[in-house]
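dude i think i finally got it to work??
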Amino acid sequence: MAIGSGIGSQLGIATETTFNTPITVTRFYEFTNESINYNKTTAVGLGLRAGGQLPRSQRRVVTTSDATGDITLDLPTSGLGLLLAHAMGSFPTKAAGAFTFTLGDVYTKSFTSQVGVPQYGGTVTPKTIGGCKISSFELGVSNAGIATGRFSIDGASFTTATSLATASYSASTNLFHFAQGAVTVDGSAVANIKDFTLTVDNSLKTDRYNLGSSGIKATQVINGFRKIAGTVTAEFTDTTLLAKFLADTTTALGLTFTSGSDILAITVSAVKFDGSAPQVGGPEVIDVSFTFEGYDNGTDAPLTIVYTTTDAAL
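look at this
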C-alpha cells in the first residue's frame, strides 16, 4: 500500500504504436506536480413538456471529451530524452554519446501517460491518458535553482479503469542545476546572466472532432508557425545585450548545463531581443530583463537540444 498523499504518487509515459491506443507506461519520472484533467463537453436538450420545471437528466449528453494539463519536473541527467523527443517531434538515435533534437513533425508520434494519484487510505487511483502530444513546453533555471521543465499535455482519452503500472527508477540519475549552467551569446560565454527561461509553443490543432469518432478527437496536427520565446535577466555589467536589443540584432543564444559527462545544451540560433533600457530605480544596483523570440535564419536549425547521457535509447 502506498502512502496516502502525493508522496505515494507516480508518473510514467510510453510511446504508442497507434494513436490513442494506450499501452503500459514504462518510463517513469520523479516529478514536482501535475494538473492533467478530464474535460467533457455536455449538452442538454430543452425538452418542454407538461409539468416539467427542470431539464431532465436523461437529456444531458457528453458530446466530446479530452484530457489536458501540465507536468513539471526537475531536469534529470538520464531519462529526459523521451520527453524531449515528444516535445520537439524529433526521435534521433544516439550518436557520439548524445541525442540531438531539432524541431520535427509531431503528427506520427503520440504517447500514453499515466499518473498514480493516492487516496487518503493509500489506494492509488491511476489516471491513464491516451493519444498524448506535448502542445507546449518550458525549460529554464532560476537564480540558484534547479533546472526545471514544464510540459503541457493534450490527450485524446482519459480513464481510471486501466491497471496501475509498476514504477521503476534509475538509481544513477542526478539533476541539472544553476551551478552547472553557462550562457553563450553568439558563441561567446557571458557571465552576468541571472536566470533563463525558454518556452516553445508547438501550435497544435487540438479540436479535431468529427462525426463517427464517438466524440474523441483525431490526432493533433501542427496548425501554424511554432513559437519560440523566452526571458533572461542580467546584471548590468556591460552593454552586450542592450546593444543587441537597441539594434534589433539577430543573435544566437545558448544555455548549457554540464554535470560531469552528462550535458544538456540548448541553442536558439536566431533570436531578437525586446525589453527595456536600463533604468535607475533607486540606490540599488541595476539589473536588466529582456524577452526574446526565436526565428528561422534560413541556415541553422531554429532550436537544437543536445542531451549527452548514459541512456542507450530514448
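The chain has a mean pLDDT of 97.
im so relieved honestly
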